[in-house]
Design a protein that fits this description.
111 residues, mainly alpha, elongated
Length: 111
């Protein structure tokens, strides 16, 4: 193996080790919480770590097979994060505060 290939393998191995360590910390944060928002953010980071792991696998194998899968996972992770954030925002809204999904000029709620 040439020097650039050796450096490439060492850097990819270091990246995989960092991904595994981040996954361990992520599991700890999902387990301990302390709030639902922390767990939701941890699940979003979990999707990012899976994408990073697939990217490292693609780099090791020098195969672009996983790129479309990574793209779909990124889209699903984003969509899930937005959905969870919207759910938490609605749940944590203080009582008595008017809804903001109507016409802001008249204050009337949407049907």
């Amino acid at each position: 193996m040439s020097v650039p290939e050796t450096v490439d393998r060492v850097l990819l191995t270091a990246a995989v080790v960092l991904i595994v360590l981040a996954g361990a910390g992520l599991l700890f944060r999902i387990w301990r919480g302390p709030s639902m928002l922390d767990r939701a953010i941890s699940l979003d980071v979990c999707a990012a770590l899976i994408i990073a792991g697939l990217g490292a696998k693609s780099a090791f194998a020098r195969d672009p097979f996983y790129f479309p899968i990574m793209l779909v996972l990124a889209f699903l992770g984003f969509t899930g994060s937005v959905g969870i954030a919207r759910f938490i925002a609605v749940r944590d809204r203080p009582p008595g505060r008017p809804r903001t999904d109507g016409d802001p000029r008249t204050g009337k709620e949407a049907p």
